[in-house]
């Protein structure tokens, strides 16, 4: 089903003035972050919160997206164009750097947990009960569909789970045509046509996968429950497990750029790779942060990036290390 982008603004017709905000003042849970380049980036979270940086995360401004729905994912296209998605299928887009955000009508009201744009024209999102939305014209029209033919583990089938009921949590494009999605029961789906069609790849795990990232068409990583970290070097034809995360910790996201890699998860878990994702080691974190999760990580380059999570927790990549951004403004 194809639906047109609604061109009426979600909020007032006039662009809202951004509100400068210190990182220590951000209290809401943050679920997604991305960078368009080394300086321009966004992060999104509870209560429809949207935060924008123009200097690589040193300073932030709050933008009005015209919604109170939790925003669970954000995709950066360029310094002026970004998209966000979240609860009950909400999809919002901006083409003016976030001064105004416009609601899109996608034809789906399922929660969307992930959203990605490999270029300005093509975008894909996915979420609960196998829901997917897709655009080929920069968000002017969207097609809603659903995964229906996922092969499930025997235990899931025995418990009454239908193949089309699989929650899809993360999506990564290696380029405009090659993409991968992951979700419940170790599900891994791959596309060779930019997200128009998908086929399942064999997974070495049955744990839910929450995050995926491909550095190119051959090298990819996925993370999930039970400390799962898996890696492929042949585009997903074969996947193998990698050590690094405690088995009792859920891992939520992973990103590798150049020689630098980070994976983040529950209870303040941070894994770091210095060899392009070949090996991973746990990074020390302040004990007072051990009860808080990190949900999303993005590397703009080898020296810059963000990791965001519970209760406004924000880390910035500085000199190859993630440093808690709020410390610069004092304790909270």
In short:
With 332 residues, the chain is mainly β.
Descriptive overview:
The longest helix has 5 residues, at 154-158. This protein has 1 helix and 30 strands. The protein has a 5-stranded antiparallel beta sheet, with no helix packed on it. Strands 2-6-5-4-3 form a 5-stranded antiparallel beta sheet, with no helix packed on it. The protein has 332 residues and is mainly beta. β23 and β24 form a beta hairpin. The chain has one helix at residues 154-158, and strands spanning 2-4, 19-21, 30-35, 41-45, 50-53, 60-63, 71-76, 82-86, 91-94, 102-103, 112-116, 123-127, 131-135, 141-146, 168-173, 179-183, 188-191, 199-201, 209-214, 220-224, 228-232, 240-241, 251-257, 260-265, 270-273, 281-282, 294-301, 304-309, 314-318, 321-324.
Tell me the layout of helices and strands.
Layout: E1 2-4, E2 19-21, E3 30-35, E4 41-45, E5 50-53, E6 60-63, E7 71-76, E8 82-86, E9 91-94, E10 102-103, E11 112-116, E12 123-127, E13 131-135, E14 141-146, H1 154-158, E15 168-173, E16 179-183, E17 188-191, E18 199-201, E19 209-214, E20 220-224, E21 228-232, E22 240-241, E23 251-257, E24 260-265, E25 270-273, E26 281-282, E27 294-301, E28 304-309, E29 314-318, E30 321-324
Antiparallel strand pairs: 1-14, 2-6, 3-4, 4-5, 5-6, 7-8, 8-9, 9-10, 11-12, 12-13, 13-14, 15-16, 16-17, 17-18, 19-20, 20-21, 21-22, 23-24, 24-25, 25-26, 27-28, 28-29, 29-30
What key attributes describe this structure?
5-stranded antiparallel beta sheet; globular; 332 residues; 30 strands; disordered C terminus; disordered N terminus; mainly beta
